[in-house]
Write a structure and sequence with these properties.
globular, 14 helices, 6-stranded mixed beta sheet
Amino acid sequence: MKIQKKHLATGFKVFCDIALILLAFQCAYLAKVVTRSQTFHWGMVLFSFKLSLVYTLTFVLSAERLGQYSNKASLLNVQENAGLLRAVFIATIFFTALNTYLNVYYFSWDIINSSFFVLIFLACSRHYFFKYHHKKYLEGKHERKVVIYGAGETGQLLFKKLYFMEGGDYSLVGFLDDQIPAGTKLALQRSRSKALPFISSVLGGLEEMGRIVKEYDVSQVMIAMPSVPTARILEIIQACIRNNVAYGFVPHLYDLRLEQVDTRNIGDIPLLKKRDYHLSFLYSAGKRGFDLVISSVCLLLSLPLLPVLALLVKMGGKGPVFFKQKRAGKEGKLFTMYNFRTMAVGTPVYMPSPSSNMPSKYVNKIGSFLRDTNLDEIPQLWNVFKGEMSIVGPRPEMPFHVEKYNEVQRDRLKVQPGLTGLWQISPDRDKEIHDNIDYDLYYINHQSFFLDMVLVLETFILTCNAIGKKLRRFLFRTVPVATKNRGLSVADPAPEPLSDANPKRALPS
């Protein structure tokens, strides 16, 4: 029954894609009619419908090969969005080539216009699919119920991964742990989310596994205790086998993060090793070319805006218009990063950045506006043009933090720092850079042209939304709505993390 429902959900997703592509082609034609670039004719409607069928077939085959219908999920679903962009690109290229070969009366601009509508419609569809699955995850309504064995540092990292992978078809029941009392709660809260924290509890230990598996209909146990002896891991695995429940475990790899592990098979023996970072020459050259084009165009387009922003900075207080600071780039090489000044003169040069939820006495209203809308970072386009930064990549870190980096964190320095990236579009972007290493490592391990395009597009949408909210608040003098449940305020601190090496330290209840 579960397999049938899974196939039914996949079939519904395919059906939605087909319907939306057919609709997108008709909307593209109607857009030309509305703009009076073409007169309406029923024959053209039918002709557009026939062409859309060819495009639909190409897209569905490409999407299936790219795993768009596999119900897998990535961090913040960026891989799924990149896959969607790649599938639309492949379908458009194939459709254009076929159109040219057959001499069909359909101009290249019409193909681009139709593909744009397809991308918009399917992106909205994917967004609501992801939100629907994430809501089911939070409510525990997915058929695949999982528990995490181990509420230590690794278990909480896995907890965070499951929470941020919004499109997954699973629901977390809770934790199992032999050292932490049953009923102990763990909370997870996105720093910019108004939603209440997601809370999960420790349900028991090894002796209660059988009862918990039956009571909650658990389908898989995720063992996240890499620092415990192997004999204990084998006991847990045997318990899973006795209770007829699937299992998986995080192996002991010293202090490596999950993002840094690569798997290969030698015969039938799995070999786990630290992942190497090797970018192809084509991708590296294309990325640099993209940086040069985008930074040049944006610098030219922003020229009329620069005097306005400079005037705003001067209105905010005394001091220079630009703020300069040394940052660590690729391989730790220092460079001077430029910003519009958003903080008062006399502010410590390397003080932690104030977040939107915790206003600083050093930041005035104009500085807060520039920071929230990312307009203060426009001068960094000059750093991109010079090759010190890239459009997409980890944020450049302060030198004194880099000096304290461990071996895991130093992997951030293997790529060019970026103007935007996965962390910047995440709900945790109010936190410090070094506190969000997971986002940067994930990006470094999954770099691609289409992933970069997705991050640029999402940054653009995020910036437009922030500017719109600020303007509406300024024009209509709106007052932020207070959090309804004061008992679980978004400002409440998260529980102190446990360590695998010290699992007996109690969590706050």
